[in-house]
């Protein structure tokens, strides 16, 4: 994995604290999620397939006695990881109080620290259910920042709850 490059900027106000963002890649696109929404990052964990396959959910993992549904949540962007499932990383995130694993090709091992003025908000996302809350440009690379609470539709949240209840 290549080492992350950090944005080096001075906070816009003396009281502003940098925002930490975890960066991951799916296919050729880079995404970020605020570190406060990341519960854990797992490398090369076996995913148990669901008895009845779902479009979004790939399967489950057992993480220290907790059943965690694993999603190809970015299929809505027309993306699937390039790597075979067994070589992917799983980012466990909090979606509206639910633990969900997102399959990724690669997770950057270094947190990216940014300030609010480094972040270009997606004004459209506040009017719709677009999970992309904004964009960061880091050394010429576009990083789409996701709002995990908008990543799944209401129907997918109900599906998630059914999966968790069945195990």
Q: Return Rg in Å.
A: 16 Å
Judged by helices, strands and strand pairing, the structural class is mainly beta
Nearest-integer average pLDDT: 80
Second rung of CATH, namely the architecture: Beta Barrel
Oligomer: single chain
CATH superfamily: CheA-289, Domain 4
What's the number of helices? 1
Low-confidence parts: 1-11
Largest sheet: 7 strands, mixed
Beta fraction: 35-45%
Gap from first CA to last CA: 34 Å
Task: Outline the structure in words.
A hairpin with a 7-residue loop joins strand 4 (48-49) and strand 5. Strands 1, 2, 9, 10, 11, 12 and 13 form a 7-stranded mixed β-sheet that branches. A 6-stranded mixed β-sheet has the order 3-7-8-6-5-4, covered by helices on one side. It contains 1 helix and 13 strands, in the order βββββββββββββα. By secondary structure, it is mainly beta. Mean pLDDT is 80; it is low at 1-11. The radius of gyration is 16 Å and the shape is globular. It has a single domain (19-165), classed as Beta Barrel (OB fold (Dihydrolipoamide Acetyltransferase, E2P)), CATH 2.40.50. It is 7% helix and 42% strand. It has one helix at residues 154-165, and strands at residues 19-26, 29-34, 38-43, 48-49, 57-63, 66-71, 89-95, 98-104, 106-107, 112-114, 119-121, 132-138, 141-146.
Structure described in brief:
The protein is built from 1 helix and 13 strands. With 167 residues, the protein is mainly β.
Architecture blueprint of SSEs:
Blueprint: E1 19-26, E2 29-34, E3 38-43, E4 48-49, E5 57-63, E6 66-71, E7 89-95, E8 98-104, E9 106-107, E10 112-114, E11 119-121, E12 132-138, E13 141-146, H1 154-165
Parallel strand pairs: 2-13, 6-8
Antiparallel strand pairs: 1-2, 1-9, 1-10, 3-7, 4-5, 5-6, 7-8, 11-12, 12-13
């Amino acid at each position: 994995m290549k080492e992350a490059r950090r944005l080096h900027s001075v906070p816009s106000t003396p009281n502003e604290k940098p925002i930490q963002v975890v960066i991951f890649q799916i296919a050729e696109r880079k995404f970020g999620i605020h570190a406060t929404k990341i519960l854990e990052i797992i490398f090369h964990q076996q995913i148990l397939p669901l008895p009845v396959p779902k479009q979004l959910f790939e399967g489950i993992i057992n993480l220290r006695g907790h059943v965690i549904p694993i999603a190809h949540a970015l299929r809505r962007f027309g993306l699937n990881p390039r790597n075979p499932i067994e070589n992917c990383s799983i980012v466990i995130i909090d979606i509206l109080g639910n633990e969900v694993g997102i399959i990724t090709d690669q997770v950057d091992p270094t947190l990216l620290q940014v300030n609010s003025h480094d972040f270009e908000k997606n004004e459209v996302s506040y009017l719709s259910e677009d999970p992309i809350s904004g964009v960061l440009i880091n050394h010429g690379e576009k990083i789409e920042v996701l709002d995990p609470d908008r990543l799944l539709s209401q129907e997918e949240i109900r599906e998630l709850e059914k999966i968790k209840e069945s195990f």
